[in-house]
Amino acid sequence: DFLFFWGAVFLITTTLVALLKKENKELTPVKEETKGITDTYRLLFSIIKMPAVLTFCLLILTAKVGFSAADAVTGLKLVEEGVPKEHLALLAVPMVPLQIILPLIISKYTAGPKPLNTFYKAMPFRLLLGLEFAFLVWWTPKVKHEGGFPVYYYVVVLLSYALHQITLYSMYVAIMAFNAKVSDPLIGGTYMTLLNTVSNLGGNWPSTVALWLVDPLTVKECAGAQEQTCGTALAAEV
After folding, report:
1. Would the pLDDT of 28 be above 70?
2. Residue 89 lies in a domain
3. Which residue range is the domain that position 92 belongs to?
4. pTM for the full model?
5. Would you say residue 51 lies in a domain?
6. Which of 104, 110, 129, 184 fits 177 for a cystine, CB–CB 3.0-4.6 Å?
7. Domain count, the chain
8. Sign of dihedral through CA atoms 86, 70, 172, 56?
């Protein structure tokens, strides 16, 4: 129902924009830096070949490896340990105001000449939170009782998520501010799209690899079956 409602709102508003919004023809059109798709890709390759951009892309593609497992797997492991999915979903609700306020606060510190300083400062704290998340997964089955989980457990999870959001948004806003700052205004759209795409890719591929490695790295024991290992999916099924 939630998705259907906002999907309908999205369709209505975009249709109204298409029908009712008129272009301002009095403005002098700015000369575009590219004429077509071929020119755009040539421009992209010329940007990528710049030593500073290449180094930055390599750094940003690997910067999030350290906390990929904590980000991608923690929620799934908590559900696996018996935490109801709907309870975890409810914990996301108090995060919404925080997610709105955080960029406003962080932007004050990323508006200066060195926006990546915020990125550097947030990184060790986010790495430490990865250890805290691992402790949380280990602690979860120990506090579980017949009625579910105590209130203090959910308070700890909520605080952990809140701290994680602070570090996450500090890094996110900082990298967006840096991308905006270094992009050449003449080719701003192409330049920023490239850097933001690399930044998004740098967050997605480590999470995918982390999820893929969960099964091979998980130690399993078979209960009630002598001389039977559960190391592979087929053995576990048997």
Report:
1. no
2. yes
3. 39-214
4. 0.77
5. yes
6. 110
7. 1
8. negative
